[in-house]
Amino acid sequence: MSTGRKLPRPFKLPWGKGQVVEEVSVAHEHWVPTIQLLEYENGSLAVRFCFYSPTGRFRRSPPIWMEEDFDAFSHELEDSPRLQALIHRMAGQANPSDAG
Q1: Which end of the chain is less packed: N or C, by CB atoms within 10 Å?
Q2: Percent of the chain with pLDDT over 90
Q3: Phi, psi of 74 (to 5 degrees)
Q4: What gap in Å lies between CA 94 and CA 58, rounded to an integer?
Q5: Which distant-in-sequence residues (6+ apart) come within 8 Å of 40 by Cβ?
Q6: Is beta strand 58-59 parallel, antiparallel or unpaired with respect to 9-13?
Q7: Half-sphere exposure of 55 (CA within 13 A, CB side)
Q8: Which residues does the chain have with pLDDT short of 50?
């Protein structure tokens, strides 16, 4: 889902700053669960699971992931190869894009 949020864009946390370089979201009436690939200034990567309000405001509460969103996120991840690879790695699976 295209969110209209520009990429890359900066982020700043107490322990470092960098750029949001990939992002996938699934919109709902009251929340927009989102997965982001964060690239810190030193080149290290992190995955952030977060959510936005429907108006685009970043929310600091823990996100809730609905089972019915899993297929939509899987589809959205096809356009975010680095993020997709890290999610597959976290799940203990080979990345489908590595299959030849």
Answers
A1: C
A2: 77
A3: -60, -45
A4: 31
A5: 16, 17, 18, 46
A6: unpaired
A7: 2
A8: none
CB 48 within 8 A of CB 38: yes
Report the C-alpha gap between 18 and 21 in whole angstroms. Answer: 9
Whether the Cβ atoms of residue 31 and residue 64 lie closer than 8 Å to each other:
yes
Element (H, E) at 4: none
The tokens of 82 are what? 């680095």
d(CA 18, CA 7): 12
Task: Tell me the pLDDT tens digit for each residue of 9-29.
Answer: 999 999 999 999 999 999 999
**pLDDT recorded at residue 62:** 87
pLDDT at 15: 95
What per-residue confidence (pLDDT) applies to 59? 92
Whole-angstrom Cα distance, residue 95 to residue 60?
30
Q: Where are the domains of the chain?
A: 9-94
